[in-house]
Amino acid sequence: MDLASTGFVFISSILVLFMTPGLAFFYGGLVSKKNVVNTTMSVFIMTGLAVILWIAFGYSLSFSGDLGGFIGNLAHPFMNGINLNELTATKIPVSIYSIFEMMFAVITPALFVGAIVGRIRFKFLLWFVILWSVIIYYPMVHMVWSPTGFLAKLGTLDFAGGTVVHINAGVTALVLSIYLGKRLNFGKETKHYNLSWVLLGTTILWIGWYGFNAGSALGVNNVAMQATMTSTVAAATSMMVWMMLDMHFVGKPQLGGICTGTLCGLVGITPAAGFVTIAGAFAIGIVATLVSYFYVNVLKSKVGADDTLDAFGCHGVSGMVGSIMTGLLATKSVNSSVVDNGLLYGGGMKLFVTQIIATLVTIIFVSVACAIIISLLRLVMPMRVTEEEEKAGLDIVEHGEAADYMVSYGETGRDHSKDIEVNADEFKGQIHHLDNPNLPKD
Description:
Distance between the termini: 67 Å
Number of strands: 0
């Protein structure tokens, strides 16, 4: 065992896990106040569901055996028969490698929650994630990251999840939003619950992304250090580009915008983090943000899909940009595992074409499989809440909870004119003045 590398991947695994509650804050801060509990819970529940699925059969389907280069087998349910102490090529135990990959299985389904908040039934979401994991996610892991996978053999470069995580989750978000239909208040501006949460979530995600990208080197080496640099540069670049776009088109810089821009840079660099130079990361940060900004502010309304929090616009679009630009900018000077340099580094069209093929295969496979899963599930259970439930908000309807006492329950109960009575101790200063109108007010 290489103790340094094992410790590094161990910490990276914790950082990737940290991203999921960070995403819960990010999404929870963006939604309306009556859907905060539902949104944060829909994200955070993946830390339980995905872990159990991964241990039960996810690891085996991803990395054990091979069926046509598409998926593994079920030879090791609950990882039975796996030698957890066996060392990988970077001399870390299989146990810590499996945990690191497990955390990717947690964050990926959490990403597409942002597209469907406020109108999907929680039960439907849980069943969808179970089927999606088996039919889509584990095959994608096998095809790209298993040495026997179809796309891996083709020569696809995906350092930390451009295809497996971001394009996959982004396309899933788009298909789900199309099948689910538009919100009742679609086209009307929604008041964000808490922009401070959005900033907090973005910060946690950025910190966690070092585990996501640098950790994908699976050891303490120069590639991990390069991935740390490129991730930082891409995120900072995208933040500034989105802010400048907002200042030009909106007329003022906006906190929600720079947070979204930051994530676009992190998404865009993910497939390329350990393959490109710092200049390459700068270019990816610019292009990913420009394309995502254009989609979110121009194309989205023309497509017509109600992707509530722009899961496709950020993760799907920037993931595609990053995947394709890897074919332009990957270089052996950064990572010796690069067989063919990118097009802009004199490697010809081979890698560029390979990256386009891998991107298209991911889009088509995920789209078709999602459509099938949704169609089958809708035969046995409703997908969308009723109009009355959507108006009331899913926090109360689905969970019987509210984010805080200031959230109105509407017809289901709370009269805020009584808050001063319900919270008498908290408001005793104000009550004192009401009872004594002749006293001077502070």
